[in-house]
Amino acid sequence: MPSLPGLDRKSQFLLCGLDKRAALKASVGTTVAIIALSLAVWVFLSVISPGDPPTSADTSVVVGACAVVVLSAKWIWARLHKAKEGK
């Protein structure tokens, strides 16, 4: 664990734990966004072709495409905010 000047061992441990919780929260949020978008697309596809439900292969493609969309949006959002901070 890196040493942080001016903090006792317990405070350093708690600060490191906060970083891990924030990262976990972000990854859970990303996963939830991917699942929600995939579900919305799957429902849309079910509505436009009600007689033929999407197969597991179709669902895999939809989830992969939604993951690309969500991760790209997250990357663009982070890049835009970094650009604003730099000005």
Report on the structure:
This protein has two helices and no strands. The chain has helices at residues 9-48, 56-86. α1 (9-48) packs across α2. The relative contact order is 0.08. The mean pLDDT is 78.
Protein traits:
87 residues; single chain; 82% helix
Low-pLDDT residue intervals, each spanning 5 or more residues: none
Shape: elongated
Helix and strand succession? HH
How far apart lie the N and C ends?
33 Å
User: What integer value in Å does the Rg equal?
Assistant: 20 Å
Q: Indicate the mean pLDDT.
A: 78
Q: Specify the helix fraction band.
A: over 70%
Instruction: Count every helix, treating DSSP H or I runs of 4 or more residues as helices.
Output: 2
What structural class should be given to the helix and strand makeup?
mainly alpha
SSE order and pairing:
Layout: H1 9-48, H2 56-86
Helix pairs in contact: 1-2
Provide a short characterization of the protein structure.
By secondary structure, this protein is an all-alpha fold. It is built from two helices and no strands. The model has no long low-confidence stretch (mean pLDDT 78).
